[in-house]
Amino acid sequence: MQYDRAIPQINFVASFSRTYTVQYLKEGAFQKYYITNGDTANTIKFNIVDGQGNINSNRLAHKLNSLSGSWVATNVQDKIMGVAGTYTRAATDTFTSRNAVKTFDYTLTLEFAGVTIPTKNSEEVPALIAGGMTGNFTADISITQGEETTEKSIDKTFAVLFAAKTFGLTLDGEEFTADTESGELQ
Question: Distance between CA atoms of 90 and 66, rounded to whole angstroms?
Answer without folding.
Answer: 5
